[in-house]
Structures are given as structure tokens and as C-alpha cells.
Amino acid sequence: MPLREEAIRAGLTTRRIGSAIHLLHEVDSTNDEAAALARGGEADGAIVIAEAQRRGRGRLGRQWQSPKGLGLYLSVILRPAIPPHDAPVLTLMSAVAGADAIERTTGLIAAFKWPNDLIVHGRKVGGMLGEMAVEGSRLLYVILGIGINVNQAEADFDEELRQTAGSLRVEAGHLVDRTAIARSFCESLDGWYERFLCDGPPPILEYVRRHCLTLGRQVTARSGDQEVSGLAIELDDEGRLVIRGASGELHHLLAGDVTLTG
């Protein structure tokens, strides 16, 4: 069933998220659409949702497969009055909201794999992409994009992804209401955003630490030209992954590609 703005708005009790809803048929990228709206002055909390993306983006320039009518492809504009160095925590916040929406809508428990994957039963069902615009030392806006595989069947994924990708439909064993997922995500994000504006990053980081399956595991992380292996021991107060190497040295990674090795 196609998404409809009035159905998403029905019963939506948010304070900020969903202040405007731009529901589009097909776009290159919801993050790109949201950024264009933000540059034009669109308000804090406005969201862009598309039925399909031609060039949906994941981290490191990877493509996020976004077939028509099967997933949730959503981006939100945020304009918090915070220093730019606090902004990366907002991507973690979107992961928390995504996991909460999945659980409330389907009963499935989604764990978080640093830096931006939602995992159900060992398979990736969602991912986040945070981007920001800065002028000097001032944060202009943040775009938080989330993609959730909702009603894909296994055959809908490219063959090379079928061993690692999953969907809520496959894991729950039935079709899932995309409107309910969208509404639940907006409501959860709204609550966490209000909390962030009042209390800063600590509540988000505390939640992610409790639900991050990366912590306590042996990992190999690649960030730019750097490759680090060791034990993922914590998330620091900026949301960076802290890895203890074989010699006891500590590495703090703000972003990267992480493989669980043990």
C-alpha cells in the first residue's frame, strides 16, 4: 500500500518531528532533497519520505537499495543550537529511534552495530546516514537519513547481499505496515530529540552503550587509510568507538567500516 501523508499524520503526537511532511514518489536521495529544503529555510523537524530512491546513499558512498514501495526511506531536518562537534551523536539518536520503532511495530529487537547499522537476528535491516552543514563554527543544520528494509523478500536483494541483509517482513514472518513504522519512528525521534535538547548527549550514549553489539567484541575497523584491530571496549562521550589494540594502545574512531571478528 502506498504511503499517504494524512495516514502518517493521523494520531501523530510529536512536538517537532513532522512539522512538515514532504512525501515524494521517487527521488535520487531523501538526504539530498532534505538538504535542498534546509538550504531554502525549511523548519526544524521537517521530514522527507520517498517511495523509492534512485541513488540512495549509505556510508562511504555505498548505495542503499531502495526498491519502490518496500522500505522506509526518510530524512529529517534538524536545527539544534549546538556546537558542530556534538552533531555526530544525533546519528546515534536516529538509530535509537529506528530500533524503538521496529520493536514497537513488530516486536522484533534491533541491536545497534557501530557506527550506523540496525541488526535483527544477525541481519542488517536498517542504516542511518547523518550529514551536516557548518558555517565557521556554527552548525546550520543536520540531515538525518534512515533506511529500513520493511517488506522486502529475500529475492528483492541483490545476490551479494542476501547473506547479510534482512527485512522486517522476513524476520517477523509477515508483511509490516510501513505507515506505522514511519509514524513510530517520528514519535520516538521526537522524544529523544527533546531529551537531547534538554540533557545533551549522555542519555543517548547510555542507551546505545547498552544495546551496541559491537562492544566487547574483537573487531577490525577501517577509517580512511587506517586499519585497526583489537577489542571494542566502549563508546566515548563523543560517540566514538574506542578500540584497545594488542599492545594496549587505545584508538578512538569517529567513523569507519567495522567487521566483527570474534
Question: What does this protein structure show overall?
Answer:
- With 262 residues, the chain is α+β, with helices and mostly antiparallel strands.
- The chain is built from 6 helices and 12 strands.
- Strands 1-2-3-7-6-5-4 form a 7-stranded mixed sheet, with helices on both faces. The chain has a 5-stranded antiparallel sheet with strand order 11-10-9-8-12, with no helix packed on it.
- The protein is globular, with a radius of gyration of 18 Å.
- InterPro entries: aa-tRNA-synth_II/BPL/LPL (IPR045864), Biotin_CoA_COase_ligase (IPR004408), BPL_C (IPR003142), BPL_LPL_catalytic (IPR004143), Transcriptional_repressor_C (IPR008988).
- GO terms for molecular function: ATP binding; biotin--[biotin carboxyl-carrier protein] ligase activity.
Structure classification:
alpha+beta
Physical arrangement of strands within the biggest beta sheet? 1-2-3-7-6-5-4
Give start-end ranges of low-pLDDT stretches: none
CATH architecture of the largest domain: 2-Layer Sandwich
Biggest β-sheet description: 7 strands, mixed
Shape: globular
Query: How much is the average pLDDT?
Result: 94
Order of helices and strands: HEHEEHEEEEHHHEEEEE
Question: So what's the CATH class of the largest domain?
Answer: Alpha Beta
Helix tally equals: 6
In what range is the share of β-strand residues? 25-35%
Q: CATH superfamily of the largest domain, called what?
A: Bira Bifunctional Protein, Domain 2
The third-level CATH topology of the largest domain is BirA Bifunctional Protein, domain 2
* First and last CA, distance: 41 Å
The total beta strand count reads 12
How many distinct domains?
Answer: 2
Name the helicity range: 25-40%
